[in-house]
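Feature request, filed as a ticket because there's no other form

It would be nice if the structure record came with a short human-readable summary line next to the C-alpha cells. Right now we just get the raw output. Example of a typical job, pasted below so the devs can see what we mean:
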Amino acid sequence: MTDLDRRTFLGAAAAGIAATRAGPSRAETAPMNDTNSHAIDMPAFVDHSHLTVIDLPMLSAFYQKVMGLSVLDTSASGETLGVAGRPLLTLTTGSNAARAPRNAPGLFHTAFLVPNRRELGRWLAHAAHNNVPLTGASDHLVSEAIYLDDPEGNGIEIYRDRDRAEWTYVPDGKVKMATNRLDLQALYDEAPKDGWTGQENGTAIGHIHLQVSDIPEADAFFRDVLGLDIMASYPGASFFATGKYHHHVAANVWNSRGQPKRQTGMTGLSDYTIRFNDPAKLETALKKLEELSIATTREGDTVSLVDPWGIGLKLSA
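Raw output as currently delivered:
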C-alpha cells in the first residue's frame, strides 16, 4: 500500500464515524488522581469474553492475524485465545449455532485495552497496511478508541487509556466522557513502522459493551445487584465500573430496546466473566442474587448465571 493509499484509508475510516459510539460531554470539574488506575486492578473487572460463532476457523484466523491474539488452548468445539499466556477470548461453535438478529440483546463490542498510545498506533498501522475496515474512531477524553467488526459482525474496540490524572470527574462522582473525532492520521504518523507481530504483554479486556432491552433494568442489575457504580449516563446507555474506572461494563438500547431475551444457540456473546479482586464485593453480589432468587450454579470459585437479557455471566474471585 502506498502512503497515499494509507492516507485515503485513514481519512475514510475517520470521516463521519467518530460520533457513533457514545454521548455528549458533561460539565467539567477538577481532575481526580489515582495511582492504582489500570482497569484490571480495580475491585472487579471483566476478565474474559466468550463468543458463539458459525465459522470457527475464519474467526480464529481473524483474531490471530488482525487482532494479534495467540491460541492458548483448543477443544473439540472451540479455541481460547489471549496475549502472553493470558486468556481473553474463547470462540466456540456447534451444530445449532444460528446467526443472531442485529437487534438481539448481546454484544455491542468487546474492548481490548492496549498498554499505551504507541501500541494503539502500531495496531492502526498494521490495520492500514492490511486494509482492515474500521467502523469508528473516537477520542473519549479518558481514552482513545478504534472500532471495527469481526467477520461475523461482532463488535470490537481497541483502545488505550489516558493517564487517570487527565480524567475529570463531576460532583456526583461520574467521569467526564465525550465522543470527539480521533485524529487517525496523527496516530498513524506517530506510530513506529517497524512491523507488528501481535499485541504486547499487558493487553487485556478493558471493558465489555452490551446490547440490552431496558436501561433502568440494567441499572438495577449492574448497580444494585452486582455492586458496580454508574460512571456515566447518556440517552439510551449507562456505563458501570468499580474503582472509579470509566467503565468495565456498558449497556445500551440503541439497537435492542424492548427486545426479548437471547435464545440458546445464537451467535455472538455466549457469556463473559467478571473477576473480583475484592472477595467481599463478590460475596455481597452473591447474596443479592440469592435474595432475588436468581438461579446460579457454582464450579469451584466461579458462579454462573444468566442475566435478564439471556446473556451468560460468570462471577469469579
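Something like this underneath would help us a lot:
The mean pLDDT is 90.
Helices lie at 3-14, 56-65, 117-129, 184-190, 215-225, 279-291.
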